[in-house]
Write a structure and sequence with these properties.
Length: about 160
């Protein structure tokens, strides 16, 4: 069984994330969507909220499992018996960071391969950072996130003062 892990903070999960997850699920028997605690990134949503949104967004996808993790990704991948890490690349600016992370992960475990997938063009501009910025200024994000996630977010007051 070929398994991949797609890690991230998913703060919140977007259409771009879903696009990469769908593509990965066509390549692997199982895709583990691993939500990082990432407290250093100061997420807008709690880990519980991010996990709930991911579960809502991914509920209909076969072979996709949502988990949370802390610590080194390669150690978590070993625990899960995963041989591949999937990362999304939207722009050249993503590439430099992702390349460094890929090499760092390879230095920790050369048996775990990193695979980079680009979202379709219609989702290439979407990032969780853009969604958070719009939300904190009271804007609508329904076109950037899955409908279930949009409804969930509307139940939470995340707009700024």
């Amino acid at each position: 069984m070929k398994k991949a892990i797609y890690p991230g903070t998913f703060d919140p999960i977007t259409h771009g994330h879903l696009d990469v997850i769908r593509r990965a699920s066509a390549l692997f028997d199982e895709v583990v969507v691993a939500i990082s605690a990432s407290e250093a990134k100061n997420p807008l949503f709690s880990l519980d909220q991010r996990e709930a949104m991911a579960r809502m967004a991914l509920s209909g996808l076969k072979g996709v499992r949502v988990v949370r993790f802390e610590g080194l990704l390669v150690e978590f991948a070993r625990q899960e018996g995963v041989g591949f890490i999937v990362r999304g690349l939207r722009a050249v600016s993503d590439f430099e960071y992702e390349l460094q992370m890929g090499y760092a992960n390879e230095s920790l475990d050369p048996q775990i391969e990193t695979l980079y997938l680009m979202p379709t063009l219609q989702y290439a501009f979407i990032s969780s950072s853009v969604v958070r910025a719009i939300l904190t200024h009271g804007g609508a994000v329904g076109h950037l996130v899955p409908e279930t996630v949009d409804r969930y977010i509307k139940e939470i007051d995340v707009s700024g003062p």
